[in-house]
Design brief:
Layout lengths: L1 E2 L6 E2 L11 E3 L6 E6 L4 E4 L4 H12 L10 H12 L1
Antiparallel strand pairs: 1-2, 3-4, 4-5
Length: about 80
């Protein structure tokens, strides 16, 4: 019997018929699981938000509202207040 690494529910799979790289679904938490090893069978949770991490990193490099790099606006406002 194999257990889900996410919720520890038992997954009814014939360990002799499962193949490495095969995708399974947990009946309890509905996580997608990849068979990363056989004999003994080892499952890894497939991250559903893995692609979102790349998007967040890209957002940091995008220019600010006025075309400046992010964070530069704060410094300019402080300098303007000092000059007054």
């Amino acid at each position: 019997m194999i257990r889900c690494p996410e919720c520890s529910a038992e997954i009814d799979v014939d360990e002799d018929e499962v193949e490495e790289g095969e995708i399974l679904s947990c009946p309890e938490c509905e996580s997608e699981l990849e068979v990363s090893q056989i004999h003994p069978v080892h499952l890894n949770v497939i991250s559903e938000d893995g692609d979102d991490d790349d998007d967040e990193e890209d957002d940091e490099d995008e220019p600010g509202e006025n075309g400046d790099a992010p964070g530069e606006d704060e410094d300019e406002e402080d300098e303007e207040e000092d000059e007054e």
